[in-house]
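Please review this one:
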Amino acid sequence: MSTRAQIRFATRQAGQSFNEHPDAIHAQFYKHSDGYPEGLGVDIAESLLDSTKLTNWEVEHLDTRHGDLEYIYYIWQAPSKETFISIFEVDSYPDECETCGQPIQYEDACIFVGLPTELINKYSQTK
């Protein structure tokens, strides 16, 4: 089974919380597999630190939304400021209410906010 993810680039704005989805993004990519933080998250962080090349990303239109994502990554950048990364675990498959059968929608959970080095320290399996 594939672990699908979207990678979105956002500009750091005053007052914008890194643990909330931003209103505007500037670029968006899709990764069909290995989108979990220990894989894609570490790859993104390493690329930001040492320009490691990333592979198997698909450029997407900014309006594209997938119903089967497991993670959404935000790369927050602005001139003369440190780059931050946010990772959201997506609740794409809602539960049903046992009483009425209606879907129960959950919010995406922000599971990480921090610098690339902090992401590597938290998720790298080569510690």
About this structure: The radius of gyration is 15 Å.
